[in-house]
Each structure stands twice: as C-alpha cells, then as structure tokens.
Amino acid sequence: MIQKLWRKRESTMDLTKIRNFCIIAHIDHGKSTLADRILEATGTVTKRELTEQILDSMDLERERGITIKLTAVRLNYHAQDGNDYVLNLIDTPGHVDFSYEVSRSLAACEGALLVIDATQGIEAQTLANLYLALENDLEIIPVINKIDLPSADPERVKRELEEVIGIDSSEAILASAKTGEGIMEILEAIVQRIPAPKGDPDAPLQALIFDSHYDSYRGAIAYVRVVNGTIKVGDKIQMMSSQRVFEVTELDIMRPTMTPVTMLSPGEVGCVIASMKDVKDTRVGDTITHAQRPASQPLPGYVPAKPMVYCGLYPVDNEQFGELRDALEKLQLNDAALTFEAETSAALGFGFRCGFLGLLHMEIIQERIEREFNLNIIATAPSVVYRILLTDDTELYIDNPAKFPPVQRIAYIEEPFVTATIIVPEQFVGAVMELCQERRGTFKNLEYITADRARVEYVIPLSEILMDFFDKLKSRTKGYASLDYEFTGYQESDLVKLDILLNGKPVDALSCIVHRERAYSRGRSLVEKLKEVIPRQQFEVPIQAAIGQKVIARETVRALRKDVLAKCYGGDVSRKRKLLEKQKEGKKRMKSLGSVEVPQEAFLAILEVE
Amino acid sequence: MLGVYVHIPFCLAKCHYCDFHSLVADAELVGNYLTAMAREIDYWARKVQPQLCTSLYVGGGTPTILSPQQLRWIIERLIEGFRFQPQFEFTVEANPGTITAEKLEVLAQLGVNRISLGCQAFQNHLLQCIGRVHDVQDIYKGVALIRAAGIQNFNLDLIYALPTQTMDEWQASLQYATELHPTHLSCYSLILEEDTPFFDAYQRGDLILPSEETEAEMFAFTQEFLTRAGYRHYEISNFALPQRESRHNLNYWYNEPYIGIGSGAHGYYSNVRYSNTQNLQQYISTWIDRGQPLYAYQEEINTDRAMDDTMMLGLRLIDGVSDARFQERFHCSYYDVYPQEIKRLIAQGLLEDKGGSICLTKQGIFLGNQVFSAFIR
Fold this sequence. Notes:
The structure holds 2 protein chains of 2 kinds.
Chain A: H1 2-7, E1 18-25, H2 31-41, H3 47-64, E2 72-78, E3 84-90, H4 99-107, E4 111-117, H5 124-135, E5 139-145, H6 154-165, E6 173-174, H7 183-193, E7 206-215, E8 219-228, E9 231-232, E10 236-239, E11 245-247, E12 250-254, E13 258-261, E14 263-264, E15 269-276, E16 287-290, E17 309-315, H8 321-333, E18 339-345, E19 349-356, H9 359-372, E20 377-379, E21 386-390, E22 395-398, E23 410-425, H10 429-438, E24 442-450, E25 453-461, H11 462-466, H12 469-476, E26 482-493, E27 495-502, E28 505-506, E29 512-515, H13 519-533, E30 541-547, E31 550-557, H14 573-588, E32 590-593, E33 596-599, H15 601-608
Parallel strand pairs in A: 1-3, 1-4, 4-5, 5-6
Antiparallel strand pairs in A: 2-3, 7-8, 7-16, 8-15, 9-14, 10-11, 10-16, 12-13, 12-15, 17-19, 17-20, 18-19, 21-22, 21-23, 23-25, 23-26, 24-25, 27-28, 27-29, 27-30, 30-31, 32-33
Helix pairs in contact in A: 13-15
Chain B: E1 3-8, E2 10-11, E3 23-24, H1 27-48, E4 53-60, H2 68-81, E5 84-94, H3 101-109, E6 114-120, H4 124-129, H5 136-148, E7 154-160, H6 167-179, E8 184-189, H7 197-204, H8 212-228, E9 232-235, E10 238-240, H9 247-253, E11 258-261, E12 266-269, E13 272-276, H10 280-290, E14 295-300, H11 303-314, E15 321-322, H12 323-330, H13 334-337, H14 339-347, E16 351-353, E17 357-360, H15 362-366, H16 368-372
Parallel strand pairs in B: 1-4, 1-11, 2-3, 4-5, 5-6, 6-7, 7-8
Antiparallel strand pairs in B: 8-10, 9-10, 12-13, 13-14, 15-17, 16-17
C-alpha cells in the first residue's frame, strides 16, 4: 500500500500532509523509548521488530564497531481529522560536542518535542538545544515524560517551563513512554501544532544535508531535507560549498529500513546516494542543488566543521605509523569533523596532530583506533588552539604546546573562552561557583529557574574545561549538575609553557600551557603524578618541571632494585612463562624515551592533576 | 637427562605463604592416593623404558608426613618401575616437624641420598608468623637425624623478606644455617601468591613486608655471605658446595625433560608440558577406575617455544647458557634467534657475553625478569 503510494509516484507530495519534527531531550530523559513508542503507535514497526532491530544493530555495532543511528524515520499516521499524514522523525545527537550537527538537524524540522523528565526537570543540555530550536523558529511541544514514576513532579516541571522558557504550561503533554500514556496525544499535537513545511517544487533544488554516513558499499550517504525543487534518480547534483558534481544513483526513505524511491519533493526527508567517495563530499549543513539549474543561494547556516581540541596521536610501536594513518583515513571517511596531519615529536617519533570537535569526540576516536584497528597508541594531553602575537606583529595559531615560540618572541597570548551554562540544584550552587573560580572562570550570571534549581553562567577558558572539568563538576554536585558550553571568542591570558624533563631531557609531548599563577602548583603536582605512574627503572630517573631554564619542581623515581622470580615451582614452567609474558605485555604498552620507559598514562597525567 | 618428580600433596597444616597444591592429610585418602600413584608410576615407567632416569625427587606438600611403611611402599614402586642411572640423585623433601629416625632410616635404606629440609627461618616468632608447624629446635634435631641416618648431602631451604623480618634476623638465619654445614642452600625471597592467607592479609593492608630496598640488600648479603662460606652461587636462589648442585633442579634449568607424578605435578616429556589434575578425588578415581592420566593442562612445545624456555630457564643459572649447547640442540646460535634482545641487554648491563656463553651480570641477577622476559616471543 505504501509502495503504491510512494514508490511509483511522479507527482510531488502534498506539503500540507507532511510534518517534520525532532525530539530534544537530556540523556536518560527517555528520548529513545519515546521514539520507540511513536514508531510502534504508528505501526512503523511492531514491538517484535523493534526488539529485533535493536538487537541486530547492537550485534552489528559489536562486530563492525560502527555506530548505527536512527537518523530519520518516515512514519505514516492516520489522524483524528481523517487524513493520512507523513511524519518525519529526525534524530539529533545528544552531546555538547555536536551542537552544530544538532542545529542542522533542527533546521530540517518545523517542530520539536521537548522531552523533560518529570523527576528531574530541565537540564543545561536540553536548554541549549531548545534555544537552538527557537533560533530555528521551531514549534515546541513540551512533553513531560516518566509521569508514571512515584517521584514524578510534573507541576514543578511546568513551573520551570513557564519561568525558564516562557512556554504556556497548559500546552505541555503529560506522558509516559514506558506505559504508552500520552503517545496518541503527542501524535495529534504533531499534526495540529507543527506547521506543514513550505516549499516550491518548481524552484531550483535546495536540499539541506543534516547528517551523513559512510557505507562501504555505497560510499557516502547524505541525509537531506528537501526545501525547494525536486530531486530524482539520475539527476546531476552539485554540492554548493565544494561545487562538486555527482549523479544520483539512488534515493531512499527510511521506514525505518532503507526503501528506494524515485524522487523527493519539498518537505520530504530521505537519503541521497551518488557515488560520493567520503563524507567530506556530504558536509553537514551544506546544500545540494542541481548542476544544470543551480539555486542562486545555498540554505543559510552552513559552517565547515572546525576542531576545537587537538591532541597528538602516536603509535607505541613506531613501525605502525602507516597503520595509524590508514585507521585515521578510514575513520575520516565517516567523520568530516576529524582532521589530522603528520607531525613529529622528539620524544614520541612520528605521529599525527588530530583535531576534534570536543573531548567526547576525541575519546571516541581514540577508543575506536585501539579497539577497531587494534593499534596501541599514545595520546598526548588535549590542547586548545592558542592565538599568539609575536613581537614582530605576526599572528600565530598554535595547537601544540611543543610548538610554542620562545618566550622573548611572544608579545602576548590569547586563548579561547567559552560561556559555560550549568544547571544545578540550589544546594550545589556554591560548589559550582567555587569550581568555576578555581578554573579561572569569570562570573556572568546566576538565575533561579525555580525555587530549588539555578542556572549558573561563567566565562571560562576552554582549556580549563578540557581538564576533567565535567568529572569534577559531577563529583562535586553528586551528579546533579548538567553542563553546556558555547565558544565566545579569544581573550588575552597570562600563560606560560611548562616543560617536563625526564632524566634531564625535555619531553616535548609532556609540555603544557598553564596560567602563570598556577605554574608552580601544577608543576609540583605534575611531577608527583608522574612519579606515581612511571615504574621503577634500571636507573634512578629524575623528573623535573621547568619554565624556560628554571626548574620549579623535582621528584625522583628510585631505581628498580630487585625484580626476579625467586623460584620455579616444581617445574611449573608454563606459569612462570605467563608471568613473564604479562610483564613483557606491560612493557609493550610503554614508550621508550631515551633509556626511560614511560607508560601511556604518563601522557594523560597532565589532565588528571589539580 | 630425564628427571622424575613425585608429588605428595599432604601437609600437617598449610603455611600462610604457600599456594602449592597440598591438603591436610586423612588416613584413608592417603592410602587411596598412594594406590592411584602406583598406577601412574606403572604407566610412565612403561612409557619411558628403556630410557634411564637421571634423578628422582619426592616433594610436596610434605613427603615425610607419610608413615615409614607408606614411604617404603611408594619408593619401592618407583625403584621397581623406573630404571635409573647408577648413583642417581635421589632427593626427598623433609619437614623438621615430621621427620623421625625411623623414616630417615627407611629412606636411606632405599637409596635416598639427598634430603631437602624446609627450615625457612631460625626465629620461632617468624616460623609461627608464616604458619610453619616446626620450631627452631626441630631444625637442629632434624639435621642430627639426617646425619645419623648416614645422609651427608642435604639442603636447607630458607626464606627472606618475610613479614617483619629484619636484616639482623636474616643474617642470623644464614649464620645458623651454615653452622649446620649443609651441602646446599636454597634462599628464596617471599613471593605473595594469590589465594594464600598472606596475599589476603596484604590486600587488607595487614601485612608489613620489608621494602624492595631491604629485600635487595638481603639478597646481596646472602650472595656475599654464602660465597665467603664456600658455597657457589650457581642459580638465582641456590648455593652449593663444589659438585653438590642439585642435579634434579639443574635438569629443569637445562630445559630437559622430566616426568611429574601425583596430583598437581608438572611434567615435560616428548615436547609436551603437562600438569596433572589438582583435584585429589578425580586424580584417584581416574587412575583407579580407568588407569589413565587426567591432565589439568597440556601444551605442545614447538621449537621456538623450546628455544625461549631454554633461554628463560638457563639464564637463571649463574654460568648462563652455553651457545655450543644451544646449537647442539637447535642447530643454530642464540645470536641468530635473539640478536637484538641480546645486544640490548648487554648494552643495558644486564647480560654479559663470556665468549661461548651468555649470563646475567651482577645487576642482571637482581633484575632477572627484565632479562628473561626479553626471550619470550
């Protein structure tokens, strides 16, 4: 029946019967369960299929190590007004690192379900994404979820909605994704409250890429929302940012499996396959148009992904440099935001300087390299991009502390700052402010969103956020705080380069940039931490922290005095061998810096010290 | 060379540091165990014939927990089953708390020519602390009994780096031990093994152990003291008067084959390493009902592995590994197999080439694991 409706059609779709929406929610507030219920209620999948599908995808994730996401699903809904509607549910990533991706997903919709946990209330991430939605003029449908729980307090959440967001709380739908309560009401609200998309099928093609992924058989796949014009199989299309031209080989809609269609018209959501080699050709936020009849303007809002955080990745075994490059290239196929270029470190040899959207993005990539490509890597501490003005008035952007120019050539240094928004129960406000002060934050705003919850705003150097700020925030607020941050610009800071010397030799990969006032205490805790993680060696190893020529802290790893198995138990050679194998395995994960063996943890020690 | 090891897995009580396979004895169980072991002796004896065995070692547990009759019975099974070289080394481990004149007489009569006595320390409070069933007085009595039975070749086992043990106490132990004029001394540092009372106590923070520095000093002192007393330091933990090295143990370090008999015993025969089941009931029932071995573990040792083992074990010997001997066995030099490793270890000052053999340096003896692990591929 659906095939009859959609597959062979040659005419454009009735715009008034399309609704495009997304779900905005904090982690654990029930987004995926709610999505599942909506899929079930519209008959898109059965309960049985839902379980199987989830299981399948998890197996696949395990086997191939790829993250499968429900990027966009087309639902058919027979509404109470007697009409059949097409609802496109567009998924949004949930982490602050990916706020640009979120904004593009939102740009593909006309409305959003704002899901708030009735037991928790509004969180910083929800708010950040909500503001993005409001910027995109989306119709917001507040959904207060988990009302079946005994600790649910929907009245408090309603007050928060009115006071924080200024939404009429009578519009909020009380729901429980678990029991299914409120689901039909939500579907009706989507049809009635979210405006139908607008668009001209005869205008030049403008399709917004809101997501993409790489498939080893079909190349890069672009998920698009058609705004104007129509796109058909066989069309010659052009990417408006890169001007590159491709021929459409396949168009699909997700129901939720990929189902080929012959065309997509305004208001529709689907994916475009056009022999594109990698996701660099399908940049999120870019506009697809026709090569022959291009649109005069791309859709607004495209920003090429820009890394905010850099770190060096080095193979533990120098001979695996080529393998590491292959791994990064493969990951980049599916991740346009990942950048890398070869660099050398005196301490670590050949490796890559890699750029990431944020810390989570960095951790994901590192883990995938180790797990999927089976490479032992050393990651240097993450760094932001510093703006340095030299005395001769030239401007430098440096993403690697090792590359800092000598002090006498520096006129001043600027570092990136972010506005951090933290939502927290009022009893932790003091703790949060204290943490922000410790991290060189400047107080900006404090506002009680309800009697017992506050929103705290600080302007903080991004580099401070990189240093386990989130973990500290969580531990000092018993896990109740939520954090969001936004880049605000560069500001001058009194920064110095802190060098670490092992056995008298500077280890470039351990250098870091710190605020002058903290240099002493950080130098001290850094050498103490390194003393803990560097195992005893054959010789005594001095560890020093220095600013320029001046040593500000010193510790010594004492020499290994005795390391020998005393006894070979009754001929149990295999066990002895296993012990030695374990010892050797540990050594493999260490990097030889001159005659000093340094474990990977040492390079992350910078992150963990106060 | 072919050694035979026989395991008697019974003790009066378990020592706090011991993770060796041993149980507190019970008369019926011991009887059944010996019957089962006699089956295993037959099995291996048939397999090994007509090869001559070069050493026999009865260890445990506590072999001397057996009655004189039981000792006689099981040793007769061994002597009748296997064929031994003339004047083969025949060692029995003894606990000062369980040896008697009668038992030693039986042993001497049956050809036992070496006793290994587990003294461990010469301070009653330390012996108590580690859970030994004997006291210092028993050590003196034991040595007197050994001599009275006409056995001149005996070893004393000592342990250093015991909880609360001081350098003075260790020095005293060495002094008292040498005054007994043993032909051989084994000095082991305490190793915390998982699933022992000591390990658990250590995890809880209830065990005070000497520092790595003190342990190293104790080891250094041991080498110096015993060498001066006329003992040759011939293996990391072993010292002997001239010609009195333990032949049975040398056989392990030369990576030569040996048969392991008894529950939990390890063997290495026709390129297979194996260990018998540690489950005493299963051990007994498989031998009595089916006359078949029941292995806990079995592994085929290929040539590469045999080379690694030869290096890892051989380098425990102070004389090191002879290249001629290596070449005779593997038809290539160890320089062909481990060129980089040897070069690096020599540069690090852990290994030394004596022309024809490589061995640990003075520092290498302290850091043996760093050397051994380099030869594991």
